TrEMBL record, chains A, B:
Keyword Repressor (UniProt): yes
Ranges where the HTH lacI-type domain occurs: 2-56
Keyword Transcription regulation set for record: yes
GO MF annotations, alphabetized: DNA-binding transcription factor activity; transcription cis-regulatory region binding
Alphabetical list of SUPFAM superfamilies matching this protein: lambda repressor-like DNA-binding domains, Periplasmic binding protein-like I
SMART domains linked: HTH_LACI (SM00354)
Name this polypeptide is given: Ribose operon repressor (LacI family, D-ribose)
InterPro entries to which the protein is assigned, alphabetical: HTH_LacI, LacI/GalR-like_sensor, Lambda_DNA-bd_dom_sf, Peripla_BP_I
Sorted UniProt keywords: DNA-binding, Repressor, Transcription, Transcription regulation
Length: 326, 326
């Protein structure tokens, strides 16, 4: 990536002269102007950068960085961001980082180089020092980053508490949480909330990867070693895996085992029996993140920096009806 | 969106003069040059267009137009496109059209205005006259467009035949196809292939929307009016809905009813029992589409225009084992 300094050096003029040429402001000799334009071409100095400097305009692009769009939590989030962006005349560039620091870093660099107007980041690298050096507005979605970066999350601690209370209220008294990776703060909160309300009814607390195959292993491990009648899965994919393993083992849901998930993705409706879950307002979270970002891009004041939306129980058929509880 | 003609009109010069200013080629009086630059600013003529004309460079952007990223078929496709694009230094702009002609039209216009280098389109508007006027390379994915536009699809006709043969081979003899919208050529082929092989064993051919709620209605309608022991669902979402309705009605799968889906999305593994399905090579299709597009963008010859990939049966637990068939 060439810089304005290299352009100045190759054209044998000052940086100020390059800037004057690009901004079409102030006096520049025809010879210097030609030299600068030739240097820009020779060095492959980014045309968008030139255009931006020339006209001080927006690119109309927003970068959306997700771990993996095939994780079924993210399509709805991406859809909401794209809908809101579209409404305001922005386009969304989709980036998948696989939670790899290096990949995230590269994406941020190339997005900055193509002059995106802002970034929406769902990342685990909450202490990535790069964020402080990024010049465009950022909003963090589903994660809390450091400092003054606006965030949109949901109340996972309350969600965990609600899950435990719901299972207790519906007659389960031997409770297990199958948590996601506990190094993720948003996941840890769900577990902590659940454990607090479960109290003496907590039988075990097991960690599982977020992907389905890993969750199958976690569920098999659980059923091999523990007896329980109520499970809180830290996301709906883990819940689906738990239900599949229970079905293979002939454990009746919800009669012998009640299961409650977390997220509220469409998957929960598609499995049999349909999944009771703690639903995040995923679409609204994506919408709000995009709205906050666009407000920041357009230089507007935003009311609050950290937005934590509420979650709610969606009762389906993996838990007992209240009147069946005893 | 302003055009070069409007710029010329406002600047009171010819289009050729505007072009000369933008290309920094040929003689232009200083007065005309200033007038053109002012007109460009006044009309908000897109800076990328200017930059592109100035330097004849690529934007590094690929537009990916899908009906809806929350339809679980598309995330894997989008992921594959993005992976391949990333490998070649391109970024992917995600657009959701909801299968609305007007929305698709608007997206194509704004993507062209921001000078994407190419477009990957999964669309139902196979006769959209706009495609012929698009100046950048296009590849059609999961759909066949008219003319010389390269396409990547899978062999749905063969998939339908394989589904029927598999059910017959595993002891089902009263067959139903729950098709998707038959106005879609790729869907019609799946149904046609199935019907051909099912022959005298075909009990009914029912059309369902692709979304889960609509598919629940279709399955209920089917079970209310027909008796069958083998169902081919035109996608995995319809299969999941069919299995859920069967479970609610106490129909044992696969003992009383065998079900086979189509697509091979991860959902099929997550439901209980796990779904036997005709798998498209979704990731490879996305990869190939992106690869073909990049070859076209970079001016390389592409070997063939229409690529139809093969599909295969993934046997899971919604169909009987061969030795259980009688």
């Amino acid at each position: 990536m060439s810089t304005i300094r290299e352009v100045a050096k190759v054209a044998n003029v000052s940086v100020a002269t390059v800037s004057r040429v690009m901004n079409e402001k102030g006096y520049v000799s025809e010879k210097a102007r030609v030299a600068v334009l030739q240097a820009i071409k020779q060095l492959d100095y980014r045309p968008n950068r030139v255009a931006r400097s020339l006209f001080q305009k927006r690119s109309g692009l927003i970068g959306l960085i997700v771990p993996d769009i095939t994780n079924p939590y993210f399509p709805q989030l991406a859809r909401a961001v794209e809908d809101m962006a579209h409404k305001h005349g922005y386009q969304v560039i989709l980036c998948n980082t696989d939670e790899q620091f290096q990949k995230e870093h590269e994406y941020i660099q190339s997005l900055e180089a193509m002059h995106v107007d802002g970034l929406i980041i769902t990342t685990n690298y909450s202490n990535n020092p790069n964020y402080e050096t990024i010049e465009v507005p950022i909003v963090a979605l589903d994660r809390v980053l450091q400092g003054a970066i606006p965030t949109v999350t949901s109340n996972g601690y309350d969600g965990g508490k609600k899950a435990a209370q719901f299972l207790l209220d519906h007659g389960a008294d031997e409770l297990v949480v199958i948590s996601g990776p506990s190094k993720l703060p948003t996941i840890k909160k769900r577990r902590d909330g659940f454990e607090e309300v479960a109290g003496k009814h907590l039988v075990a607390s097991i960690e599982s990867p977020f992907h389905f195959q890993g969750a199958l292993d976690a569920a098999n491990y659980l059923f091999d070693h523990y007896t329980c009648n109520g499970i809180f899965a830290a996301n709906d994919v883990i819940a689906a895996a738990t239900i599949q393993v229970a079905a293979e083992r002939g454990i009746a849901i919800p009669e012998q085992l009640q299961v409650i998930g977390y997220d509220g993705i469409e998957l929960g409706q598609m499995i049999s029996p349909p999944l009771t879950t703690i639903a995040q307002p995923i679409y609204q979270m994506g919408e709000l993140a995009a709205k906050l970002l666009i407000q920041r891009i357009e230089g507007k004041e935003i009311a609050a920096v950290h937005h934590e939306l509420t979650v709610e129980v969606i009762e389906r058929e993996t838990t007992k009806r209240k009147d069946e509880q005893i």
